[in-house]
Each structure stands twice: as C-alpha cells, then as structure tokens.
C-alpha cells in the first residue's frame, strides 16, 4: 500500500506541471514593475548560495555531535531536507508563504502552484530590484534549513520515512503560516509592526519549539551520547554556518546596499560576542574551554542576531550576542535532560536565542540604522510599542509552533511509527537506514 501511494505521488508531481497551462487558465499577474539592478541580482545570487551552504554546514555540526554509530543518518536528515523541501516549495510552499493573503494568516496556495507566474521577468514589492524567481529561490533556502534544525532534538532515535512525512507537514502547517504572518506585506504580524529581519520567529523559534515537542513526544534515548563522535566536524560545520549566515542575514536586505552591510557587521559582532561570552562562562564556572562549547556560543550569537540584523547598531550587536549566550547557557546547563532529551540542545539554542533576539530587537532597534522604522524604535529610544508587539508575537508564535508541532508528531506516529526499535537504537541507525557505518 505504501509503495502504491508513493508511486501515485511521484506520478502526480511528474505530470501535473506538464498540464499546468491547461489546469490553470489564468496565470497569476506579474508583480511590480521590472526595474532590475544588476548589483542587487549578483549579491542575491551569492546570498542564495550561501544560505543553501548552511544546511550542509548544519549536517556537519550535528553529525559531529552525535555518537559514532549515527553520524551518517544524522547528516543525511539535513541533506534530505534540501531535496524534499525544494520540490515542496515549488509545488505549493511559495504560494502558501507569499501568495495573496487569506485574512493575514496564510497565502493562497493556488496562486503560484508549481511556480506559476514565478519567472525572471517579474518582481515583488518585497524585493523590487531582483527577479521574482530569485526572490522565491532565496526564500526556499530558509524553508529548507528550518526542519533540518529540528533534527538535532530527536537525533539517534527517529525512523527515516516518518521523518520525511513530518517535515512535509511542518512546512505546510507550521512554517508557512508563520512566514506569511511575519514577512508577507499583508501578514497579521507584519501589519502589526513586528520586526523579524531574517527569521528569529520564522526559522529559529519555529524550529526550537518543534524540537522541544519532538523531544517530549519521542522520549529519552536508551543510550545518551557523552562524547561527540567528530569534533572536527563540529568546527567545520560552525565555520560553514558562520559564512553562510552572512547570506542569511545580509541577504535579507534584498540588495547590495547599506542595510546589507550593516546586517553583515551585526552578524559578525554578535557571533563573536556569543562565542566569547560562552567561553568566559565556562571559565567562571571552573570548566575547561572546549571547541564544542565555544561553537555553541558562536551559534547562539548568530541566532540572536538574525531578527535584529538590519535594525541595530554594531555595538548593540555585541550586547545581543553576550546576553543571548548567557541566557542560552543557563538553559543548556539547567535543562532537565533526565526528563526531556533534547539531544543537541536545539530548543535551548535556537528557540531560546531566537526569543532573546526578537525581544532585544524591541530594545535596540533604531531608525538611525534603518530609516524605514520611522516611529518604530526600541525601548532604549523611548519606544514601547515595538517591544510590546515583539512580546505578543513571541508569545503567540511560541504557542502555535509548539502545540502545532506536537499535534503533527501525533498524526505522523499514527500513520507510521516514529521511533526506531530498541535494538536498532542500540546498534546505531547508520548501518540499517543508510547502508554505511563510520
């Protein structure tokens, strides 16, 4: 039965685009006026590649942290997201996120089904100087890495095919509504005035809360990894993530401009401050400084900078990195590992740092950095509305992402059991699921 269903899905994906012109008698109208800037196009092409690089970077980062019997399977979970989410994005994902708004909460999926109307001759108001197809493919990379981030929480104990089903449902029912409400011009939170420059809510909070839901639902591992299998992988992955993050944050300016340069500076400063703060905290507590722990601090600094990158000063970015590192460090240290086995601290890093970055955006955002803010400045500049809006968005999205993801885990488990057998968990997932042992 499973083989028949998969064959039908594959056949539909193959044939529907061929007949799309017959199925859809009217293509979506071109968006905006084409007035392209070659410099902006060149930068966004590079930024798109940089963001895609983050997913292999994440694969190395996670693969290095797990036990030696689960390295390949863990890395492959990130790589397969590039395959599945890209196709899903073309079929329906882009329309759900950026199609005509339905009451401010979701886009019309039929508006751009199979990339109808997405080409190199049209544009969109969010990125008027680049082709719409470039904007759409840039945003696809954000959708790819988000479910990949979640995998660190249930590492070493999830079956492959149910995982595939989960990431499909997650993109459709969790990622797309959050992206639409926060980033679409007619989205509910966007119209409220919530600021999320590059994905503090859309990527990191959604992944963090989904990770917590997954860790709770799947339960503890039988054997919890004590020592990372490949510390060099962790260092390599962190380096790739840091480089890719410049495309992630600076690329979200949608052009080669001053805001992109500011976002790049904020990203670098916050990442370095986060790594430094984590090292100092370890030393203060009497621990030795290690490569893995320092990498966690850098990662937290990068995450916290994401929502703030185009709105805050460089010197405030140092504060953001330090504060986020301290908060996440406390959560990592005190998180109830004996009860909730978030294997690679996804919630403590991505979820908590995403929340911290969103709230600190409401503190430090200023029109001196980004003139488009006008009266929408942070608490430090005597503005209270922005911080209140950030707080409301954080609360609402946290509840939605956690509850929605937990329900998805329940649904997927009813269709196909999520957790591997105890025997396979003890022997490692690499040999059985992937066909190779490292």
Describe this structure in words.
With 438 residues, the chain is mostly helical. It has a single domain (36-434), classed as Orthogonal Bundle (Ammonium transporter fold). Helices cover 66% and strands 1% of the residues. It has 16 helices and two strands. The chain has helices at residues 2-15, 20-23, 38-65, 71-98, 132-150, 160-183, 188-192, 200-218, 231-250, 258-284, 291-308, 314-334, 346-364, 385-415, 422-427, 429-434, and strands at 101-102, 106-107. It has a two-stranded antiparallel sheet. Strand 1 (101-102) and strand 2 (106-107) form a beta hairpin. Helix 3 (38-65) packs antiparallel against helix 9 (231-250) and helix 10 (258-284) packs across helix 12. The longest helix has 31 residues, at 385-415. The two termini are 34 Å apart.
Helix content: 55-70%
Order of helices and strands: HHHHEEHHHHHHHHHHHH
- Cα Rg: 21 Å
Instruction: Report strand order across the widest sheet.
Output: 1-2
Q: What is the 3D form?
A: globular
Give the CATH topology: Ammonium transporter fold
Give the mean pLDDT: 91
Could you say how many structural domains there are in total? 1
CA(first)-CA(last) distance: 34 Å
Largest sheet: 2 strands, antiparallel
Percent strand: under 5%
Counting DSSP H or I runs of 4 or more residues, the number of helices is 16
Structural class: mainly alpha
In CATH's first tier, which class applies? Mainly Alpha
CATH superfamily: Ammonium transporter AmtB like domains
Number of strands: 2
């Amino acid at each position: 039965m499973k083989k028949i269903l998969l064959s039908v899905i594959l056949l539909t994906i193959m044939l529907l685009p061929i007949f799309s012109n017959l199925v859809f008698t009217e293509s979506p109208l071109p968006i905006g006026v084409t007035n392209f800037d070659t410099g902006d196009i060149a930068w966004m092409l590079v930024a798109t590649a940089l963001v895609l690089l983050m997913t292999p970077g994440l694969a190395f980062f996670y693969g290095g942290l797990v036990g030696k019997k689960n390295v390949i399977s863990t890395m492959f979970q990130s790589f397969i997201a590039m395959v599945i989410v890209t196709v899903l994005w073309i079929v329906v994902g882009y329309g759900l996120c950026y199609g005509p708004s339905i009451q401010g909460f979701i886009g019309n999926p039929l508006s751009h089904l199979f990339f109808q109307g997405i080409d190199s001759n049209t544009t969109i108001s969010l990125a008027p100087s680049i082709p719409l197809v470039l904007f759409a493919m840039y945003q696809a990379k954000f959708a790819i890495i988000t479910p990949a981030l979640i995998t660190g929480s249930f590492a070493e104990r999830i079956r492959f095919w149910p995982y595939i089903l989960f990431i499909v449902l997650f993109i459709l029912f969790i990622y797309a509504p959050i992206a639409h409400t926060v980033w679409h011009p007619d989205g509910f939170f966007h119209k409220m005035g919530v600021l999320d420059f590059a994905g503090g809510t859309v990527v990191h909070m959604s992944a963090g809360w989904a990770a917590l839901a997954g860790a709770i639902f799947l339960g503890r591992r039988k054997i919890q990894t004590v020592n990372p299998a490949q510390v060099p992988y962790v260092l390599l992955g962190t380096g790739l993530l840091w480089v890719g993050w410049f495309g992630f944050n600076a690329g979200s300016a949608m052009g080669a401009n001053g805001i992109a340069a500011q976002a790049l500076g904020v990203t670098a400063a916050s990442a370095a401050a986060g790594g430094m703060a984590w090292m100092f905290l370890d030393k203060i507590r009497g621990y030795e400084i290690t490569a893995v722990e320092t990498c966690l601090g850098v990662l937290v600094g990068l995450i916290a900078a994401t929502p703030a990158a185009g709105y805050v000063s460089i010197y405030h970015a140092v504060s953001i990195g330090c504060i986020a590192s301290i908060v996440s460090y406390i959560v990592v240290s005190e998180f109830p590992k004996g009860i909730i086995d978030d294997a690679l601290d996804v919630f403590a890093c991505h979820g908590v740092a995403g929340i911290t970055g969103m709230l600190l955006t409401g503190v430090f955002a200023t029109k001196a950095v980004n003139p488009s803010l006008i009266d929408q400045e942070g608490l430090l500049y005597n503005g209270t509305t922005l911080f209140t809006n950030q707080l409301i968005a954080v609360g609402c999205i946290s509840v939605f992402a956690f509850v929605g993801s937990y329900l998805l885990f329940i649904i997927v488990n009813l269709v196909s059991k999520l957790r591997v057998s105890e025997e396979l968990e003890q022997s490692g997932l690499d040999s059985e699921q992937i066909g190779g042992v490292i």
